[in-house]
Specification:
The complex is a heterodimer. Chain A is mostly helical. Chain A is built from eleven helices and no strands. In chain A, helix 2 crosses helix 8. The longest helix of chain A is centred in the middle third of the chain and has 30 residues. The termini of chain A are far apart. Chain B is an alpha/beta fold. In chain B, strand 8 and strand 9 form a beta hairpin. The radius of gyration of chain B is 19 Å and the shape is globular. A six-stranded mixed sheet of chain B has the order 5-6-7-3-8-9, with helices on both faces. Chain B has a three-stranded antiparallel sheet with strand order 2-1-4, covered by helices on one side. Chain B has a two-stranded antiparallel sheet with strand order 10-11. The N and C termini of chain B lie far apart (about 40 Å). The C terminus of chain B is likely disordered. Classes of the chains: A mainly alpha, B alpha/beta. The interface between A and B is medium-sized, with 24 and 25 residues.
């Protein structure tokens, strides 16, 4: 079964959707969308470094994404508005990454594969990596779920319950870096943030509890992967962007339905 | 044994001193109200007690196994976060349906479990926050301007609820408030804060203290205009003697 590249692609995409769902909910609730972008964009620098030092791309992107996320956490609240800071960091990381990749001679790199993903070329080894990473992220977030939710709502409330909001922020940062590192292969650095945010945002009108929203986001993400891959096959379109298009259309449809319901 | 003992506490934000050498104790079952103008360090004091900010100097000692229930000033629930009252109350962990029932009843909003947090009125929301603080059966309840955004009737009934809670559970209460006359009747002790402790005592003693009157006026309508509000006054050494600028009487 795993010999079929479409099956492997679908499994890889679903793996990303499963991890991105709970993480994406926190990104939406905490208004960290730009933060996800910055971390993902920095990953291209990680790709360049991994190729230069011929180490695993997973490790390289993980380290750079983590460094980026930590930098943002440390710099936040020190003079610049968060969106300015993230705008500067996200785009300069991407630019430096692209420049760094051009320095690497000898290897012919398909840059598009890192920017937009190459889900149809997912190998069995990649699948192990993706599902391992996804399991790690889901385990991490489930373990800290209540503490994360409390510190998302109010930091002082967290302090009063003996929760350190800074530590919880670090948990999210780590989960985000891991997700970026294993999702590059599937959707590429430019569209990782879309996989985090769009299914979570689409799930909002259907949910009554935080857990429900994470669950529905997972379903929407997984369906987007399956339908997007099918569409890419039928219409001969790029797979990663097709998946994101399906998720976006789902978001649009659910929002319009919700809008109509509140009018009636 | 005091529940909380604040010893010689100073808090700084960069070069700005928010609190300077504040000492106080909270005893079991008493209701203490902190009053003071904006920027007088009231919230800093509360945040230092829950451990959200580190003292620059001095320390905060909590009684062993002290359970604190905290009601924040305001809690903004992002529109994107769906959560019911009962799920919100369960966030503290180890909470049963009976606990939720008890806490909501104590807070004066029974049978609200299934409502979405974002759909509640201001008064209901504050009471749900109170229920959350009560659910762990705290020894000390901390309230930071808990009635902000409520009208006068709403806040009066909220403070009556606090008195009821104290009577029913015996927990001590430390609260910050702007609404002096409303709060004062419910308090055993009032602390007037302006970076340091200006004066403290029973509500009647504080209301007639010159330091308090200087900060807030007499509060008896009309006479208010006679007082010049000079908030940057200084105290020379410790509590007495006072050196207040712009004394009006």
């Amino acid at each position: 079964m795993l010999d079929d590249f479409m099956i492997r692609a679908a499994l890889a995409g679903i793996g990303v959707a499963v991890a991105a769902a709970p993480l994406g909910c926190f990104v939406v609730w905490r208004r960290m969308a730009y933060f996800g972008d910055a971390t993902a964009h920095a990953a291209i620098l990680g790709v360049a470094l991994s190729l230069a030092f011929s180490m695993s791309i997973f490790i390289g992107t993980l380290v750079v994404a983590l460094l980026m996320a930590l930098t943002v956490s440390v710099l936040s609240g020190r003079g610049y508005a968060m969106d300015t800071l993230l705008g500067v960091l996200a785009h300069s990381a991407l630019a430096f990454g692209l420049v760094a990749v051009s320095f690497i001679s000898g290897v012919r790199i398909d840059l598009m594969a890192y920017l937009f993903g190459d889900i149809l070329a997912v190998s069995r080894g990649d699948l192990v990596m993706i599902w391992g990473g996804a399991a790690l992220v889901v385990a991490l977030i489930s373990w800290r779920w209540s503490a994360l939710l409390t510190s998302t709502m109010n930091e002082d409330l967290a302090h009063a319950s003996g929760i350190d909001p800074k530590r919880e922020q670090l948990v999210l940062t780590l989960a985000l870096a891991i997700t970026v590192a294993f999702a590059i292969k599937v959707v590429g650095v430019l569209l990782i943030a879309a996989m985090l945010i769009i299914p979570a945002a689409a799930a909002r009108p259907l949910s009554k509890t935080p857990e429900g929203m994470a669950f529905v986001a997972g379903i929407i993400g997984a369906l987007s992967v399956v339908i997007g891959l099918r569409a890419a096959y039928v219409f001969d379109t790029p797979a990663g962007p097709s998946i994101v298009c399906v998720a976006a259309l789902t978001f649009l449809t659910l929002s319009v339905i919700k809008g109509f319901r509140s009018l009636v | 044994m005091s529940l909380v003992q604040v010893e010689d506490l100073s808090v700084r934000y960069g070069a700005r001193t928010a609190l300077s050498r504040v000492s106080l104790r909270i005893e079991p079952s008493e209701i203490v109200t902190i009053v003071g103008p904006n920027g007088s360090g009231k919230t800093s004091l509360l945040r230092a007690i829950i451990g959200a900010i580190k003292p620059f100097q001095g320390r905060v000692v909590q009684a062993s196994s002290l359970k604190i229930g905290y009601v924040p000033q305001k809690l903004h629930i992002d529109e994107t976060l769906p959560i019911t009252v009962s799920r919100f109350l369960k966030l503290t962990g180890g909470v049963t349906a009976a606990d939720i029932d008890y806490a909501l009843t104590q807070a004066g909003v029974p049978a609200l479990e299934k409502a979405q947090l974002s759909q509640l009125s201001g008064g209901q929301f504050q009471r749900v926050l109170l229920a959350r603080a009560l659910i762990a059966k705290p020894d000390l309840l901390l309230l930071d301007e808990a009635t902000q955004g409520l009208d006068q009737r709403g806040s009066a009934s909220f403070y009556q609820q606090i008195e009821t809670v104290r009577r029913n559970t015996g927990c001590a209460v430390l609260m910050i408030s702007h609404e002096l006359h409303v709060v004062m009747s419910a308090s055993d002790r009032v602390i007037c804060l302006n970076g340091h402790i200006c004066c403290e005592g029973t509500p009647a003693v504080v209301a007639s203290a010159p330091e308090y009157r200087e900060l807030f006026g007499t509060g008896t309508g009309g006479a208010l205009a006679l007082y010049r509000h000079e908030h940057d006054h200084s105290h020379q050494h410790g509590d007495h003697p006072h050196d207040h600028n712009g004394t009006a009487n």
